[in-house]
Amino acid sequence: MKKRLFPFLVLPLVFQICGFLPAAGQAKIVQAEYYLDQDPGFGLASRIPLTPGTIINGLAFTANLGSIANGVHQLHVRARDSAGNWSLNSFKTFYVGSLNLGNNLPAQANILQAEYYVDQDPGTGLGSPISLTPGTDITAQTFTANINTLANGVHQLHVRSRDGNGEWSLNSFKTFYEGSLNLGTNLPPAGNLIRLEYFFDTDPGFGKGTSLTLPANTVDSNFNFNAVFPGLDSGNHILYVRALDDWGITASFAFTANGALPVTLVSFYGEAVKHTSQLYWETRSEQDNAFFAVERSPDGIYFQAIGQVPGNGTTTLDHRYHFTDPSPSIQGINYYRLGQTDLDGRVHYSGVIALRFDRGPLTLQLYPNPTTGSLHLGIPTSEDRILIAVYDASGKLMFSRQYGQPGNRLDLDVTGLSGGSYILRITRSRGQTNSIPFIRQ
Which domains does the chain possess? Predict the structure, then answer.
């Protein structure tokens, strides 16, 4: 890998959205948003103006970068369609700041050290060493990574290098799968399809959809059937179909339903109060409304019911509802939705709302970096004690201190250090050790 110097970036940043291309018949894209570095949660990022449509490829927008510090950042973009489905994130890595190099670029330093790790970063300088011949270009270097102790599954191999000035490169990584599939000596012959099932919008689980028995010797996809449509809300929906000889891939078909809503939901919102979620919603009219199931999710995709609130049957009056979640499941963002259930068992879902609980940072954070003398360490969880040790670029211990019951933030005075590169090593009460490099200006 080559050591590269980043050019300065002119603010604001103009980004072009590419890749949100749903197949024909899918719901229109109605919302797009972006965020920098830290995900605030679905629907909580900065809005991107757009004209709704099934394709938004080529839409350009200007991101506000006025408040971010100099350094390397990531701009993330995603979109939501009218059925409430969010796209995967698209992102760009960029550098903010400038380098005052004068009239001549400095000579590149030889790359002296390289290392790798799998999945979990042990800290800069603490990875597995890679043998190399020092030089300004090591793109032709090869090495063998030891992955003998890895469990079967998906992993990431990370590689980085250090030059003669003590500066580390950004990580390069590859995603790979460890394991094998034991299929025997011969693949089994394709079997006849014996059963088909279908469902709308939300997967009830394999074997739990509306089931149909297929004619004998059905081996291809040329089988027609009549789907029984339940009382779906007006709007965009998706019909899913799959067949059994082991279960095949689930096919999907988008369509639009027109019909009267059993419940007119005027509003649904919530607020984080101390360590509880307070949820509120209001209806304008209800028809055969049995109850509302309150559902919670850690990721905005997979929801689980956590309680019920009785409905008011059939009424034309306004009604206000309230539900308290006394123990949100995760630190950070919790997602909620309502599953309004009719007397005949049909379910209609509300939109999704997100509530944030800030009980400390999600990861260890060290800032500002570079520093002129004061450092702040953000700690994600409560600890009985923290041991801090600072080493210079050669590995010499400069000082160490122990803190009892540190809370979620420590303020560190490093004014006694001379300018240069250092490593802050943090040993936590449960034995975890992390290393974070920083620069004293």
Answer: 13-96 (2.60.40), 111-178 (2.60.40), 263-357 (2.60.40.10), 365-440 (2.60.40.3080)
